[in-house]
């Protein structure tokens, strides 16, 4: 998988989780712990994207 396609996939996952968080916040029945877990997953994906962007290009 190329770096660009990997970053695109991570961005898609990041956006999907963001939508899940937004949906969860609209429903008071959703457990706060679930929202925290979603936010942690979103942050981990963001961190991974930043690490990939910071890597020196091998081209």
From TrEMBL:
Key words of the record: Coiled coil
Q: Return the Gene3D superfamilies for the record.
A: 6.10.280.50
Q: Locate the coiled-coil region(s) and give their ranges.
A: 7-55
InterPro entries named in the record? DUF465, DUF465_sf
- Taken from the record, one Pfam family name reads DUF465
Q: What is this protein called?
A: DUF465 domain-containing protein
UniProt organism field: Mesorhizobium retamae
């Amino acid at each position: 998988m190329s770096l660009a396609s990997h970053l695109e996939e991570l961005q898609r996952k990041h956006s999907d989780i963001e939508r899940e968080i937004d949906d969860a916040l609209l429903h008071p029945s959703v457990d706060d712990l679930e929202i925290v877990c979603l936010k942690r997953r979103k942050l981990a994906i963001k961190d991974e994207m930043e690490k990939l962007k910071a890597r020196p290009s091998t081209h």
